[in-house]
Amino acid sequence: MSDGLQDVTVKQAKRLKNAGFRWETNTFYDIDGDRFFSPDLSNWIHDETAMTVSAPTVALALKWLRDVKGVPSFVGAVECVGNGKGVMYQGNFKGVDGWQIVSSADTHDAAEAALLDAVLAEIEKGGLE
């Protein structure tokens, strides 16, 4: 975790790189999937090599998707009456077919990670640019 925030997984990091993610990060994965931290942000260019891939937080990755790729998205809390859970979290994004609910999860972090996966999948199949 970077500053208490959830880092993307190795798979998500590779998918982000393929989608064009090039923002500065100080956390990376190497080719073996080991995560490492570099306090010098000038090292962010390493994500351009075949040896490492940037590992932003999930929140930063979603911000990049909103700001650069133009994909509106958010995680919202939904009160669940009668199921004993209290609150569930749902990831939402606007695709070519309008707003889509992609996940319901017990935690904000889980909903955010599922949202990132759903948006990346939509980009990979050509549904979003």
Question: How would you describe what is shown here?
Answer:
With 129 residues, the chain is an alpha+beta fold. The protein has one domain. Helix content is 29%, strand content 28%. A hairpin with a 5-residue loop joins strand 4 and strand 5.
What keywords describe this structure?
single chain, alpha+beta, three-stranded antiparallel beta sheet, 6 strands, globular
CA radius of gyration is: 15 Å
Q: Give the structural class.
A: alpha+beta
| Largest sheet geometry | 3 strands, antiparallel
Number of domains: 1
**Poorly predicted runs of 5 or more residues:** none
Q: Return the string of H and E elements.
A: HEEEHEEEH
Placed side by side, the strands forming the largest sheet appear as 2-1-3
The number of helices is 3
Q: Report the sheet-strand fraction.
A: 25-35%
Helical amount: 25-40%
How far is the first residue's CA from the last residue's CA?
29 Å
* Total beta-strand segments: 6
**Shape designation:** globular
> What's the rounded overall pLDDT mean?
83
Topology:
Blueprint: H1 10-19, E1 27-30, E2 35-37, E3 52-54, H2 58-67, E4 73-80, E5 86-95, E6 98-105, H3 108-124
Antiparallel strand pairs: 1-2, 1-3, 4-5, 5-6
Helix pairs in contact: 1-3, 2-3
